[in-house]
Sequence to fold (480 residues):
Amino acid sequence: MTLGRRAFLRRFAAGGAILAPSLSGLAAWNFASAEDARAATARRGAGGRAPGYGPLRPSADCPELEIPHSFRCVRVSVANRVSPVRPSLTVPNAFDGMQAFAMPNGNIRLIRNHEMVDGPGRGPVLGWPNYDRKASGGTTTLEVRIHGRDAERSIEVVDEFVSLAGTRVNCAGGLTPWGSWLTCEENTAGRTHGFDRPHGYVFEVPASANGPVEPVALTAMGRFVHEAVAVDPDTGIVYETEDAWYVPDEPNRPGSGFYRFLPNRPGVLAEGGRLQVLAVPGRPRYLTARGMAAGTTVPAIWVDIEDPDPRGADTQPLIVFREGLDKGAAVFARLEGAFHGDGGIYIVSTNGGNARAGQVFHYRPTASGTGELTLVFESPSRDVLDSPDNIVLSPRGGIIMCEDGGGDQFIRGLDREGNIIDLVRHPRVAGRPAPGEFAGSCFSPDGEVMFFNVQGGREAGSSNESVTYALWGGWTEGPL
Fold:
């Protein structure tokens, strides 16, 4: 029997489902038709009032972006320029994943990834000490101070410095309950490709670091095409996503896995542990990427990965996942964002689903080695949601998603009723480079300021500048 949208949402109110109210808007779209999606898009395109904050207009401070009239947006940091607070630092490009941390002095530190994709020695190493002198990625840390409130608010950059150097293709990551950022390499190239060290690992950067940390590859967490991580604060288990394509009948694109790392000592990841991949019992290679109906829940188990750091990963980026496949691992399509919530872990598939437009899953553990995997949401059309990537909960009860689609780039919100809210738009302009994807959205500790990145160029010498922005304003006028 099909469960209607209203009945489905009533279950949230009654506490009969695992979803938080802030995510019930995702489930609402499970019952939307393609016609609903086209109608909603047409209303926005015709200048109809977007629910919550109204139509977008060019920002007075950042005219390259469009934002609601009750908001203000300012640039905090721009790549390819000398830092105004550290003259010795030329800010590197390719801003990506990011997280905000409250500091004891009342300031905020933003640890920011740099997804540089340069070949060996083709881009400058960010600093010393470094993991690999031929790799140009890493992280920088921004320390900012917020002055005033509301219309009088301003953002002061207090410091800006390299906090991890010599890594490669630092895409996403995740925060830890003990006050650090786990930054993930999304590429496994190593010595075979001319680098001095193997790549494809997770590295840890404490928020308290005041310069480049001693880089330690967390090899037991796996060497694969890493994307994001999320830590269960109750157990210290780290969940990891893998960004690899699923294409039917293409052996070189078999999909990606969803992993967990059981540390030998919770909170001390460098002491090693055990890597596992999710599988569905009795249904080897269960395909989540196509044909899984929204709202479906399947049982889950975890299968050991015997060789999390295989030498062959240099030339076989999916070698860890293929071990999992041989043991029956479930198949996902391009897993990206991850965060802890509602007693489990939410994960985002960028192009999963029958429309290839995106999915959101929730994994809930039921015992030490078992759990349940639910497909919370599947985008019925790119008009609804186009390739969600970074996703973050709003402190006020909505969710905010950075899209990684084509054409104009958007940061969009989703309220509890399933209304899609255009929050920030980076329009495509003829004669200019295509707008970079949005990434790294996160909130200040008081929930009043949202920081986010536009990625820009990912190779040394690119003139397409990355930018970190801060957005604040009339949050209470809408549901986000």
The radius of gyration is 21 Å. Residues 1-19, 44-49 have pLDDT under 50 and may be disordered.
